[in-house]
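Table S2 (continued). Query chain:
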Amino acid sequence: MTPDQFRGLVKHWERVGRSDFLQYLKNIIPPAEKGLLGSVGSSEDVSLCLYRLILAGTDGTLKKESVSKTLAEAVALHPDLPAQAVDIFGMLEVEMSANDDPKNKERLYWIIKSVEGAVSNQLLRERMEVESFPHIGVVKNPKAFNSKFIKLKTKLYYKQRKFNLFREESEGYAKLLVELNQEQPASSSPEQMLEIIKSVIGCFNLDPNRVLDLLLSSLEARPERHGFLVGLLRLYMPSAATVSEMVGAKYGFCRRQPGQEEAEAVTPRSLHLMTALLLRHGVIQLEHIWPWLLPADSAVEAEHRRQMAAAAEYQRRTFVVSTKDKEDSPRDAELPPLAPLSQSQKLGLCEAVLSVGDWATAQRIMARFPDFCLMVHPDIAAAACRLLAVRLDPIYRRYSGLTAALEPAPQLADVRSEVAPLLSAIGPYLAADVRLVYKVLRVARTAHRQRLQQPEPDSPETREAFLFYDVLTILEESVLPCLVLLEANCCLAEEIWTVLNFYPYQHRYRLYGTWKNDSHKPHPQLMRKRADFIKMSKSLMKRISKENVKPLGRLMGKLTHNAPGYMFEYMLGQIQIYDNLIGPMVDSLKYITNLSYDVLGYCIIEALANPEKDRTKHDGTSLSLWLTSLANFCGAMFKKYNLDLTGLMQYVANQLKSMKSLDLLILREVVQKMAGVEAVEDMTEEQLSAMAGGEMLRAEAGFFNQVRNTKKSSQRLKDSLIDNGLMVPMVLLMAQQRHCVVFKETEGSHLKLVGKLYDQCQDTMVQFGMFLSSALSIDDYRQRLPAFEKLLSEFHVSPDVAFFLARPMFTHAIQQRYDELRKAEKNHKSLSVEQKRDKYLAASEQVLAPVVAAVVPVFPAKTWDDISPEFFTSFWSLTLSDLRVPTESYEKEVRRLKQQATQLGDNRDLTESKRKKEQERCQALIDKLHEEEKRQKEHVDRVIARLKKEKDSWFEPRQAKSAKTETMTQFVQMCLFPRCVFTSMDALYCAEFVHTLHSLKTPNFSTLICYDRLFCNITYTFTSCTENEASRYGRFLCALLETVMRWHGSREVFERECAFFPGFVTKFRVSNKQNERSDHVDYENYRHVCFKWFYKITKAIVTCLDSKEYVQIRNALKILIKILPCYPVLSHVANIVEKKVEAVIQAEKNKRQDLALMATSYAGLLRARKTHLIPEKDFHTVDKSKRETPDNADRREKRDGRPRERAKDDETRSRSGTPRSDRAGARERKHDSSEERRDKKASKHSTPESETKRESDEIRVVEDEYFEKPRRPAGSAVRSLPEASDVDREAKRRRVESTVSQLLQSSKGGTQHPGVSRPLKLGLTRSLQCCQACSRLEFRCAVCDGLVVRFGLDARASWFASHVIVGWFGFGSFLSPKMGSDGRHILLQRLDKMPEKDEEKKKKRKKSEKGLEEGEIRNKREDKKERKRASLDDRGSPIESKRKKDDDKPAKRRSEGDEFREVKDKRRQRREEEVEFYDEPRYAPEYDWERERERPPAKEKHRGRMDSKRR
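Corresponding output:
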């Protein structure tokens, strides 16, 4: 009740307040049988209510009569209320005495008198003050009472009653000692002894206090009789305080006296033991005896803090690297010695309490100090271990598994109540009793074995009943830390592992983390031990090498028996820095225990998950070296030793779930070392060829490591993944992580790092998939892997990965179904080859039909207009071993085995039986290889037969040439490119599949268009690849080029494999019948096309090498290295590539060292192949006579779409000033008006009979695009260049000036590009003329490197406005267009007209503009010098010579002008023949190649440097 509520009741007290007050008390007062003081909250509230009521009566707020009546009724509600009312009376009396208010005190006394019936007088006499007795009527005669009270106080406080010591007889004490210490009969009791003591005291007048002291001394002397003596003490002196004072006085006599040394002040252990017995039996209380003991609690805590500080300092100095000499370096900090228990009464009492088994009292003592503060002392720890052994003994006898059970048998639950608390208190100091540790471990092991026998061993109830978590606590707090304090004990470590092995890795690793990182912190001894272990680890790591692995390995093993975590932490740190330690460390760890191996697994994961270490190098472009070293160490350790893989595999899976793929490096190394499955990128050409064979050939020749050497480790890896359910989730996570690497994980990362992570994810996924397919049986593989439809729909796996995972299942299912269909026939053993092929085709259709249905919804419906789903499924479901048999690999391996068998026969070091056994093994392998090769040949024949039957439905016929192009584009995008960059094997498979499509004469498949799509315009393909993808793409191109060059090298091979094949058709008809020879590409035209493909590849490579982008340059070099056997084959192409590569070397020498190193490597390889290069004339030739034949003329007219006379008219108009069309515009107009031109061609060059057929049959001519004429300058066949008139030059000049002026007007004085902030302006010199060689001026964009504008007969100003126009030698420099040196230049500068700072660049530019004429001019000048020296003898006087020289100046100027013009003419002639050739290499039979071969070469002495623009 609050004060406000009470005041409200007082206002209406007489009416309703009094009744409400009593009703409130009735509600809050508990029943009478329940004590008022035991109810929470009720006692305080009732006391406050009574206090306010009585106070209101004393200060006059309420009438004292009403208060008295109400109080009498209130105290009657509960038996405890009268006592509370008396306490309130006493408290109010004290308050009023301080206030000195007599009226209030009179009212209080009146109220106390009035409640005399409710409150007894005895209670008032007991609790009220003596001075108030007369006022409240408790005493009848106050004067007599006061007199008696004074006498009693005088007797109590001032009168002493003591025995006279002189009347004592000393023989009485002797008699008492004899009685107490003699052997008592079994029938004697403490009561009888007490009567004897009483009689002795009375007879000899002994002091009872001294008798009590004598009793305590007897107990101290003979503690084994504590049962009898303690009972006697209880009877003799029931007051615990008196006994405590007596015991305290004994401790006082043992204190240090003045002038006494501290070591001399010793408290005997017998006194501690006597006190402990008294405490155990309850004779005295700990609170009574504790103040008598020394030292103070604060002193004990201060000593513990000093111990901790000294240990921390010792540990700190261990990690300090001192540069001083050993003599000058400070010594290690010594721990302050522990005070003996005899000098610390409190510690001695604690040890004694534990010795007598009083665990409750010991807990109370230890609770007064910090944790493990008392257990530091060895005596206390030993006493605790003895007590624990006593408690554990009955449990151990039943659950140790060594003896039979006792009766009554204890239960396992007793461990939780009796043993576990004591173990937690002892902590690591359990090392004081090693046997006790073994007992605890054996009981825990028995509990786990019984748990595993239960129906549900992992249920919470079962775990709770069989101490699952209690044992974890015991291991964490006591067992594992105590191992550090022991000497090297490998047996105990193995015993601990037998218990830990029952727990999953999560619980074990949590224990190891606490053990290594936290358990030593509250214990000074453990801190010092940790520092010692680290110091010894450093010493061993400094000395270890390959030569001393065995002795140092044993020392390291001893070191890891006790504290493996400390050793491994330092060891892994050193391995991350020095990777050359990996081998010696792996070899030296063969002497450690299973517990140490498991701790090593945890330490590896802890090092991998260290958040303080950056996983990439400082430049952010590659992985850190520490991660690579740790991955190599993991692979070597897990392969050689039987470590638990569960934690490491789960860590990698968790990282993948978190979209982090950096740790896939660990998985790759582990799979490679344990399973022997290498990354396919590291394989040689011979290994890749062997991988196309069967399992036996792959095992013998396809891997670096022999499979039999990794059989056990591979089985361990497989079992670990299966038991923990990580096999399929791991590969699916990697498949999904490929896209996360690019779009989520590497946001803001360097592009090089992105590519490396993607390659790592891809390679690891392929490696892991190969491991699954080889380690698992096919039935187990099918059972564990999700269905193909679920992979695409539920798990969102891309088709390439889905087919990669499901391909082994398809192959096995087809083979299994084929065997079923074949054996279903009665005469299945005598089936013909055709019948077997039919069965195989039926089996393939049945197995792949669901796959086809699952693939169709994945892509848009329009996709299947170009290629069929059956073809898509066939492409992705086959492998290289389905298309060809690696006969050479089989033969090579057979030869190797035969040679090995021969060497074994000659080896006399082996016994006869051993040689015979090895030779039999080699012969068995040879027989198996022959049998496997035979089976694979049959399998390939069946697959080829199946493809032949399916090929007609793969590509649907379309009604236009563009449809063929789209079909090939879809084929490249959906099939070839995704798979050729998947693995190196897939790259070879794609090339082989394209060749198979060509060899099968697949309808509607154009080999030429396919190759053209793969060789032309591949710059972006190069750029979009990662590093490994570029290598695979290079292998793919190399395989394609091998086929192309094989057809190119021999006419017979071309005629046999390509002539009249559908893939080499140039005209597509509705009937799909190509009977005319002119519909196919002949051998010579094919060689021209090969040259075009080589040019396109060169163009893409040069573009990438000139781009200055890291990825483009790296990918170009990677591809160049891979295609080196087939490219370049032309000498001048090799020179171009070599110059570009040298430029890369010079540019990247001091910037990006990896690019410079790669370019240097390729340059060396290229120089080694120069002897195999051929000139262009040997690569492709065209007969000159074909130019003049009518057939060629007709063919040329048909290709051009106009007669020869029309071409001549165009040339005439060109000379008269009419603008001609550029090539791009002509091609566009030709495609736009194709129907109109076809009608004109049909009317002019076709007979009336064939007109209808030609219009309905022929759709489009492919050779318009792929076999185009060379771009010759208009008019070059009509007149020679020196005959060009001034009229033509003037006309060209006017046209260019007009175009430029229109451009300037349209752009308002400048042009603007989106990538440039300042506009550019175009200026003209006084006289502007075009080049006489090419009739045009070209400018390219600095941003997109595209053709901006060609100033010539048909210049387009609209191109100019959307590009940034700069020169050939950098932004802001002068343009150097393709024009003759006698013409003028167009100048293009920035508005600020910033001058060029680098004078050396100016010289280089001027030198390059001169071109080939340098050498010619130099030769002319040398000839002049020779003539001048020859005419020195004919000279006259100096005056005549000067006059003659002045007369010859005009003639000399004319002569030099003629010489320059001659050189210009020659240069223009070459430009006409070569520049266009490098620009657009497209050929036709009428090109004059004879003239090219007959052209005399330039002088070798002063050839000069070729103009870089022509390249």
